[in-house]
Amino acid sequence: MYHVPVLLKESIEGLAIKPNGVYIDLTFGGGGHSREILKQLDTGTLFAFDQDDDAEANAKNNSEFYDNERFKFVKANFRHLKQSLLFHNISQVDGILADLGISSHQIDEGSRGFSTRFDGELDMRMNQQQDFSAKDLVADYGEKDLHKVLGMYGEIKNAKTLAKAITAERIRKEIVTTQDLKDVLQKYAPRGAEFKYFAQVFQGLRIEVNEEMKVLEEMLTQSGEILKVGGRLSVISYHSLEDRLVKNYIGKGKFYGEVEKDFYGNDIKPLEAVNRKPIEASEEEKKINPRARSGKLRVAEKLYFIHN
Ligand SMILES: C[S@@+](CC[C@H](N)C(=O)[O-])C[C@H]1O[C@@H](n2cnc3c(N)ncnc32)[C@H](O)[C@@H]1O
Hints:
The protein is an alpha/beta fold. Helices cover about 40% and strands about 15% of the residues. The strands form 2 sheets. Strands 1, 2, 3, 4, 5, 8, 9 and 10 form an 8-stranded mixed beta sheet that branches. The protein is globular. Bound molecules: S-adenosylmethionine (SAM).
């Protein structure tokens, strides 16, 4: 199984699909969400993005996608959303779905370096054509920058101590594999919560390697621009850093600071939240699919046309 989709029913319902509309799945992965969107289209089109070679192969080897004339796969980082769609002569869309982060396939493939369980090279690139990997990060970042990554993105308490330890350890022995890194982390992890600590450190490195926060900001801004009035955005995030950006963009039209107002005191922002609170998976889904435990879905609707 490539990936079990999370919050499938809820996120697709959030899109309020029009059978003749243009829809975007920004995170194709195993195609679980794409499949549901396609089921609801008659004359509409689905563009499915993913930057990962394996996700592309998964779409290409699957006749339900590749033989479907309503389906188009776009091998690109979703930070290039607008530009990639323009290539297909599309400037406005009816709905956009993003199921952020990595797929179970990417985690379970030890050689990708995302897993705290399986050994593999410290890689963590979502796009295999990218040069910069987690191994480069751990080998080259100075203590200050490592501290920032571990504290800000890994949210670990002893980030400064760990950054110092890594920079000292890598002189003694090159840190090449996930096991090499875990050997260093072991000493600094709270007793009994080692795997949680490893997971946080890995999360921090992964976010930095793939510039995930910056890419998410770019994608949300472009989504706000290209949605048609009444069009829907459905985003599933898996940690608080991502969710905060999604929440702020929907609520305030920006990522930091307060919402801007026009002359009449109206909020200047392209989207309006459909649900006040994020939607979480049911207890039943969380039981069957552990990945669903941290999933938070936010749905928003485009309010008015922005010319850009
Ligand atoms: C959680 S999985 C999506 C799973 C999918 N919804 C399903 O049901 O199978 C996230 C996918 O998005 C891709 N991805 C993450 N960030 C991306 C980005 N910035 N641009 C393009 N693809 C990205 C990953 O490579 C991964 O395949």
